[in-house]
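Ticket #4471: structure output looks truncated?

Reporter: J.K.
Steps to reproduce: submitted the chain below (120 residues) through the standard prediction queue, then opened the result file.
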Amino acid sequence: QVQLVESGGGLVQPGGSRRLSCAASGSGFSINAMGWYRQAPGKQRELVAVQTIGGTNTNYADSVKGRFTISRDNAKNTVYLQMNSLKPEDTAVYYCKAWAVVAGIPRDDWGQGTQVTVSS
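Returned output as attached by the reporter:
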């Protein structure tokens, strides 16, 4: 199993910025891709951004393109989500997800989530 720990959530005013971090830990694993999802109250969890570890493929939800940037530090097994120009509709619990191989077996794991609230 890959343990994922998110941080950086909180309250931010509309138009503000916030950076989320997600650190992966465990033993005997290699990560193929990491990404961020979010779930607002009463809504389904949706993809926000995902990036392969090699950086060759990056995808964003249309709703965040041009405002959010996903990046990673492979040496630290950490992925970041820089969120700019935040809107109230970005309010959600943000979850980190990792697609990894553990002992030769592909698996995906989720973090516990971090709340981001955009409000004045």
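Triage note (M.O.): checked the attachment and the full token line is present. Residues 51 and 91 are 22 Å apart (CA to CA).
Status: closed, working as intended.
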